[in-house]
Design goal:
single chain; 312 residues; mainly alpha; two-stranded antiparallel sheet; 13 helices; 2 strands
Amino acid sequence: MSVRTHCIDCLRTLHRQSIACPKGVAETKQASRQPSSTSPVIRSKKEATPEAQNVPASATRRLAQEVRKAAPSFTETYVAYGVCEQLVKECAMVADYTIPQASEQGADIPQNDKGEDVGVGNSWWYQSLGMTPTFNTWAQITFLHMYLLTVRLRCFPAEHAPTWHQHLTDHFFHLAEDRMVTMHRINSRMIRNKYLKDLFVQWRGLTFAYDEGLMKGDAVLAAAVWRNICKGDENVDLRRLAEIVSYMRSVLAGFDTMTDEVIAGGDIVFGDPSSEEAIVKGRSRLMDPAGDSKIQKKPAKALSSSATEKKS
C-alpha cells in the first residue's frame, strides 16, 4: 500500500469514527451522536447506527487510532482538511451549474452583456430568484453558505476554530480555480490569480456585511444580500429576498441544535429558501396599525367613588 493510499484511508477512518473531532470541540461520546434539527433548510446526512459502531476495527482503523494518540494536533488539522473539503463541496452544490459547450472543442460559450460565461442551472437560485448561472453568481451563493458555516464554526473552542476557518476558505479557492480551468477555459495563471484575489476581497467584505446584518436586523441583512447575491438589481423580487433572509436565520437556528460533533463530522445538507415561502407570505403583526389585540394594553379602570374619596 502506498503512502498516499494509506493517508486517504486514515482520513476516511478518522472521519467515519468521529475520532477526528478535536478535544474540546465535542464532549459527547461517539455513541451519543445526536440527530440534527428537523428544519427543512439544514439537516445531517446520516446518523450513526449501532451496527456501524460495532464494526470490527480493521488494520487501517487501528493505525488511525495510533496516529491520533501519537500526534493529536496533527490529526486534527489532517481531518479538518478533509471535512472542510466536504463542507465546501456541499456549499458549492447548492448553486451548481453546467456549461455544455465547455466540453466541446471549438464551441463558443454563451456570454451575457457583461462578458460573463453563462451556464445552465436548475436550482431555486436560478429558477425562482431569477439569477443568471455565471461563475460570479455561483461564488456569491457559495460564499453565503460558507458564511453560515463560519458563524457556527466560531462556536468551536478558540484554539480549534482558526484551523477550520482556514481550511474552509482554502478549499473554496482550490475549487474556484479548478472551475475556472475546466468550465471557463481560463488557462492563464496570472488571470486566475487576479480573479482569486478579487474573490478574497469579496469574501472579507461580505463576511463583515452579513455580520452587521445579523446584529442590526433583517433590513440590514437583506440589504447585504441584495448587494452581494442580487448584485444591486432594482427589479429583484422583494419577497424572494425576504425568503433568503428568513432562510439564513433558519439555517443558523438549525445549526444551534447540532452538536459540535455533527458539524465536525461534515454531515451537513443544505435546503433552499423555498421552505420559507409560507412564512414570508404571512402577515406581520407590525403591519397591523392597531397591533395585535392580544398584546394591547387594557384601558385603565375608573376609580370607584370610595377610592376617589380616600385618594383625595
